[in-house]
Specification:
Radius of gyration: 23 Å
Order of helices and strands: HHHHEEEEHEEH
Strand content: 15-25%
Number of helices: 6
Largest sheet: 3 strands, antiparallel
Number of strands: 6
Strand order of the largest sheet: 1-2-3
Shape: elongated
């Protein structure tokens, strides 16, 4: 199996941090609004100082939850990187991914319908790309490979799919 570059770990950590940060901001805002609304309805107060003073310091500890989640994800991302890979076989493409739930996918070249190379802003910053492979069964991806390798994979998979395509 061909491994992905080491810098892919950094990209996945940045993506996890952004995801956790955005979800935490959304959930924190909703929690603050709902609890303040409930307190306002129950106490019938209109004073903002009184509304904000009821928050217990334990509520403030909820702000540490995203940090704890990210710390838990930080090491898992590095470990999961070791279980990701791909291999171009004679008749099939083999994809391996997953840490807790491991996936091993075998794609017949004859079933490949479309191959694309995609690179988001964080991936471009770290010189990485994703090869997306579409089949009738669904979409598959070889994530976080070097852009040159991604172009070569796209070209090679396109040629192999064209050669092995079943006659219609």
């Amino acid at each position: 199996m061909t491994r992905h570059p080491e810098r892919a770990v950094r990209v996945n950590r940045i993506a996890a941090a952004l995801s956790i940060l955005s979800m935490s901001a959304l959930l924190g805002t909703l929690t603050a609004l709902i609890t303040t609304l409930v307190h306002t309805i129950l106490t019938r107060t209109r004073d903002w100082h009184e509304m904000l003073n009821w928050w217990h310091p334990a509520m403030a500890s909820l702000a540490l939850l995203p940090l704890a989640i990210y710390a838990w994800r930080f090491d898992r991302i590095k470990v999961a990187w070791h279980f990701r890979g791909y291999h171009l076989g004679a008749e099939e493409l083999y994809l391996r991914a997953g840490l807790l739930t491991r996936r091993f996918t075998v794609l017949a070249y004859a079933r490949i319908q479309e191959v694309n190379v995609v690179s988001g802003p964080i991936q471009r910053r770290f010189e990485l790309a994703t090869v997306t492979i579409k089949t009738a069964a669904g979409d598959h991806a070889i994530t976080d490979v070097a852009p040159r390798t991604a172009q070569q994979l796209r070209d090679r998979l396109t040629v192999l799919a064209r050669e092995r395509r079943l006659p219609v």
